[in-house]
Every structure is written in structure tokens, then in C-alpha cells.
């Protein structure tokens, strides 16, 4: 696969990371387009603007948006109903760009200027306290979003992936330290086992001698 081509295609996508295209993120969709695995019309958040950009870049004819992936809409952002939020953090875990903040068992809130409108926070909310509402400020159309916010959204997504990878590595390291004995502990275990064997041998020798 031509990684350079995939990167250039990725740069033309809205970076909402919504997965509606059927891939785990915009980068995965870009790789699929680059190798001809799928077409250029599977991005509802990007809509017609993105399809036209991809078609122009790849020298293809524009296509209608694939209705199986959703429909193009005016930009919306997630808003948490403070009265119902139970602070479960499930929406925080689902947000691909860390646009939701809050402590466990405390009310969460969405940073409107960073929300990509991906809607991934909706399914995991156990009390249905998140709603998608029209944006009140910033880019309102897909084309404006592509011009103004997509690069920043990509950086926030990449930062989150690195953060999660680092956290996973630290958890694995802590788990290893918790379960794997240290060298001194291991030596003590071996010394104790050797002492037990010597005691058994001494008892056997005394029995045979007596």
C-alpha cells in the first residue's frame, strides 16, 4: 500500500472518527480508499464537500453519499444533561478526541469547541443524558469544518491514542510488578524451599540412623 497516498487522503477527511464509514477511524478509511477496498462516498460528516475533494484529488467522478453510512446533516455537538448525569465516565471513554471532561461520580461536560459530533458517546450512556444539538459557535457546515477544525481534531485524536497506549503500558507494568516477585523475593522463596528440603533430608537421615 502507498502510505503517502493514504496519508494524503486522510488529510482530506473531516477527522470526526465517527466510524460511520465502517472503519475504526478516518485513517483506516483512508487506507482502504488508497488500496481500492472501498469508495470515496462513505463519509457522512464530510458529505458532498469531502466526496468532491477526494474525487478531485484521485481523479475520479464524484458519487452520491452512500446512504448505508448515514446522511449529511448540519453540524451538531453533544450536550450532557447535568440533572441526569451519574458520572459513570463511559462517555469519556468513548470520545475519540477527549472532548468530554469530568471526574468519576461527578457531572461530566462536553467541550463544545472540541466536539466533532461523532455521536459515539450516545450508545454507552446508561441514562440517556446526552443529546446532539446544533452548534452555537464555530464551523457549522462540513466544508467550514474541513477548512478550520479537521487538522486540530486529528491532532487531538492522535494525542488520545498515544495517551491510551501509554496508560495501557503503565497498567501492564504495574500488573507485572504486582504479580511477578522481585529478585530478593524470589531468592527468599528459593532459600526457603532449599531449607525445607534440607530439613526433610535431615529427618530422613535421623530416621534411618535411629
Task: Give descriptors for this structure.
mainly alpha; single chain; Alpha-Beta Plaits; two-stranded antiparallel ribbon; two-stranded antiparallel sheet; 3-methyladenine DNA Glycosylase II, Chain A, domain 3; 47% helix; 210 residues
What does this structure look like?
With 210 residues, the chain is mainly α. Among the domains are: 3-69, 3-methyladenine DNA Glycosylase II, Chain A, domain 3; 76-138, 2-Layer Sandwich (Alpha-Beta Plaits), CATH 3.30.70. It has seven helices and four strands. The strands form two sheets. The chain has a two-stranded antiparallel ribbon with strand order 1-4. Strands 2-3 form a two-stranded antiparallel sheet. A hairpin with a 7-residue loop joins β2 (100-101) and β3. α1 (3-10) packs across α2. The model has no long low-confidence stretch (mean pLDDT 88).
Topology:
Blueprint lengths: L2 H8 L15 H9 L12 H12 L17 E5 L9 H5 L5 E2 L7 E2 L19 E5 L7 H7 L1 H30 L3 H27 L1
Antiparallel strand pairs: 1-4, 2-3
Helix pairs in contact: 1-2
Amino acid at each position: 500500500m502507498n502510505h503517502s497516498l493514504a496519508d494524503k487522503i486522510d488529510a482530506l477527511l473531516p477527522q470526526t472518527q465517527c466510524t460511520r464509514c465502517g472503519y475504526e477511524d478516518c485513517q483506516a478509511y483512508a487506507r482502504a480508499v488508497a488500496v481500492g477496498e472501498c469508495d470515496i462516498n462513505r463519509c457522512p460528516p464530510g458529505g458532498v464537500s469531502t466526496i468532491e475533494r477526494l474525487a478531485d484529488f484521485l481523479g475520479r467522478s464524484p458519487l452520491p453519499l452512500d446512504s448505508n453510512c448515514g446522511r449529511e446533516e448540519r453540524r451538531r455537538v453533544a450536550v450532557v444533561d447535568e440533572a441526569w448525569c451519574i458520572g459513570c465516565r463511559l462517555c469519556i471513554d468513548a470520545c475519540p478526541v477527549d472532548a468530554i471532561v469530568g471526574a468519576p461520580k461527578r457531572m461530566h461536560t462536553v467541550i463544545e469547541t472540541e466536539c466533532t459530533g461523532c455521536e459515539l458517546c450516545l450508545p454507552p450512556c446508561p441514562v440517556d443524558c446526552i443529546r446532539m444539538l446544533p452548534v452555537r459557535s464555530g464551523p457549522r457546515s462540513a466544508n467550514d469544518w474541513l477548512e478550520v477544525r479537521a487538522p486540530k481534531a486529528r491532532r487531538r485524536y492522535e494525542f488520545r491514542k498515544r495517551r491510551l497506549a501509554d496508560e495501557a503500558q503503565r497498567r501492564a507494568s504495574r500488573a507485572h510488578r504486582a504479580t511477578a516477585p522481585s529478585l530478593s523475593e524470589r531468592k527468599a522463596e528459593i532459600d526457603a524451599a532449599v531449607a525445607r528440603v534440607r530439613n526433610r533430608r535431615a529427618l530422613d537421615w535421623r530416621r534411618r540412623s535411629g
